[in-house]
Amino acid sequence: MDSEREARLRREAMAWITVRTHDGSRPISREELGDFTFDGAPYRLISTQTGIWKPAGLAAALTIVTKDGSPYADGVGPDGLPRYNWRGQDPQHADNRALRAAMQMQSPLIWLFGVGRAFYQPVYPVYLLREEPEEYRFVVVHEAFREVAPYASPVETELRRYLLRETKQRLHQPLFRATVLRAYEQRCAVCSLGHAQLLDAAHIVADSAEDGQPVVSNGLSLCKIHHAAYDAHILGIRPDLIVEIRTDILAEVDGPMLRYGLQGRHDQPLMSLPRAHTERPDKDRLTVAYAEFRAAPVPRGKR
Ligand SMILES: [Zn+2]
Question: Are 87 and 96 in contact (CB under 8 A)?
């Protein structure tokens, strides 16, 4: 396959994933990743065996997989950029050569993060910026900050802070969302609405950590309205998982969204929760957030 055609395959594969994931709002299954076709021929987008995948005929790797759903599974460099490990420690292994080719040609890659069994949250396009052979790994950069990344330095600079923030935005955030929505089976915890496009992964308390695993127990799957109401302290969640609505809102008279969507949820238990106890909302974090809800000022004249 000539390089122009390979570049087109990459573009078409990414456009296809964008459609299949509703613009990244839901993960894609391993099975579905086998459905992509290019010029009428099937091209799997994930290896059946390994994490690094170069379909036959291509000059460089096309997709890379990280199983546990964290962009920092293979570490993050002092420059704030995530790393992707070689397969094993042989620099001449075919998989590592496929990665090196992607770096040398600056071919865009699709990074697939495992979220639950056989489901992946794709992040793309990413590029391999350089290789760290003594650490058996590559430095990964998202297209959004590809221009500035080569100037990143380990010292605390504006650029390093920018890269950390951007990495979080582009890599960490979609994974947090995918992981939390999967845990809640794509439903709002407060009202049980089941449309992924209307759902967000809300943080129970602001996520201050710059790296690490997306912590599901600091997350809540909430529909857009309940997310905004939670952040605005109109809606609170007690540590015993009972919903409370701010007192002045309870006294208001208005249409169905207020009556059913907010007032109707007051004093009610959460409607959907993760099956796994370890993924349920963390009591300590709920206690902190609930105290903030209680302490938040009620608009003047409404108390
Ligand atoms: Zn809701």
Answer: yes
Pairing of β 109-114 and β 63-66: parallel
Cα angle value 177/12/31 (rounded, 5°): 55
Q: Which CATH number fits domain 3-162: 2.40.128, 1.10.10, 2.30.280, 1.20.272?
A: 2.30.280
- Tens of pLDDT, residues 7-51: 999 999 999 999 999 888 789 999 999 999 999 999 999 988 889
Task: For residue 169, give Cα distances in angstroms to 18, 74, 219, 232.
Answer: 18, 18, 16, 22
Distance CA 265, CA 13 (A): 43
Q: Is the pTM of this model over 0.85?
A: no
Q: How far is the CA of 200 from the centre of ligand 1 (A)?
A: 10
- In the chain, where are the structural domains located? 3-162, 179-294
Query: What is the 50 CA–ligand 1 centroid distance (Å)?
Result: 39
What's the token pair of residue 236? 């609170």
Compute, in angstroms, the gap from residue 130 CA to the centroid of ligand 1. Answer: 44
Ligand 1 centroid – CA 220 distance (Å)? 11
Q: Which residues pair with 84 in a beta bridge?
A: 138
Give the Å distance between the CA of 232 and the centre of ligand 1: 14
Q: Are 51 and 39 in contact (CB under 8 A)?
A: no
